[in-house]
Design goal:
Layout lengths: L2 H23 L6 H23 L11 H24 L2 H9 L1 H11 L7 H18 L9 H23 L5 H19 L13 H28 L2 H8 L2 H12 L6 H19 L1
Helix pairs in contact: 1-9, 1-11, 2-3, 2-8, 2-9, 3-7, 3-8, 4-6, 4-7, 5-7, 5-10, 6-10, 6-12
């Protein structure tokens, strides 16, 4: 399977997750730490099920790799918690724009740490995609700098660091085993940092909330594996990172189709076209 197809499938699944996470975190009873714990644990469990059908573990963590796994899990954990916290303070559109900044850090990381070459064409394509996302999601004259803004910026930096380090380890590590290890380590870190989080899991005892978090976790497990395999096939984080930003455009289309969100249509169309053009330039 080509890396372009794998990235496309990953974008579609992550886009659906964007809508479901918004639904869950808008509830006043939801908690960012509980959401992160439930989410990472379920992703790990679904990864184990996938491993069962693949014939079991094919890669094991060595002592020299353990620090990398702890760092990756720490970055992903911080990214998830701060991103969920951000939903509590700022609008979804502003949240999306700020989180997209992670792709700029990913471009830099791919050059500095993965040894990839940044060409003028790749830079232009990446900027077109990110500009498209920002135009599609822009809702007001200026950003309001508050706690939510800093939460999402921290999440963006954390996700970017975790992504680049993940790609580095995945050069010679099985992607499914990697997903399982990082998910369970992240869940353990969340519990160790805040043991009282277990008392807040009652939120997911409600059938609707449980159904949403299970769906999100299955989607994320599959989307993450598609993304990891795309990198293992193409070894091109410089291209994959910015293209993944188009999941925001797909989310806009899904919201229009299923949630009937028709506000700001002209700018959504312009932003979507820019992102499509940038993607085409990136993959050609």
């Amino acid at each position: 399977m080509s890396w372009q197809l794998l990235v496309g499938l990953s974008i579609l699944l992550y886009s659906v997750n964007g809508l479901l996470h918004r639904v869950l975190m808008k509830n006043s009873d939801s908690d960012p730490n509980a959401q992160a714990l439930m989410f990472t644990t379920l992703v790990g469990l679904f990864g184990v099920i996938i491993l069962f059908f693949q014939g079991g573990f094919k890669s094991y963590i060595s002592l020299s790799q353990l620090p990398s796994f702890l760092l990756i899990s720490g970055f992903v954990t911080a990214g998830s918690i701060y991103a969920f916290k951000g939903f509590k303070y700022i609008e979804a559109s502003e949240h999306t724009i700020l989180l997209t900044s992670s792709k700029l850090w990913s471009l830099l990381g791919a050059v500095l740490f993965l040894g990839e070459t940044l060409t003028a064409r790749k830079l232009l394509a990446g900027l077109l995609i990110i500009a498209g996302v920002m135009i599609a999601e822009w809702r007001k004259q200026k950003f309001v700098i508050n706690a939510g803004t800093w939460y999402v910026l921290i999440a963006a930096a954390s996700y970017s660091a975790g992504e680049i380090l993940s790609f580095y380890v995945l050069r010679d590590f099985d992607s499914t085993a990697f997903l399982v290890y990082c998910s369970f380590i992240s869940a353990l870190l969340i519990f160790l940092i805040n043991p009282s989080v277990l008392s807040k899991l009652y939120f997911y005892a409600r059938p609707k909330n449980l159904g949403n978090i299970v769906t999100v976790s299955i989607n994320d497990a599959l989307a993450t594996l598609f993304l990891f395999n795309a990198y293992q096939v193409g070894r091109n984080a410089l291209q994959i990172g910015p293209i993944m930003a188009t999941q925001t455009i797909v989310t806009v289309i899904l919201a229009l189709t299923f949630l009937k969100e028709t506000d700001s249509m002209p700018q959504k169309i312009v932003g979507s076209l820019l992102a499509v053009v940038g993607t085409m330039v990136m993959i050609t």
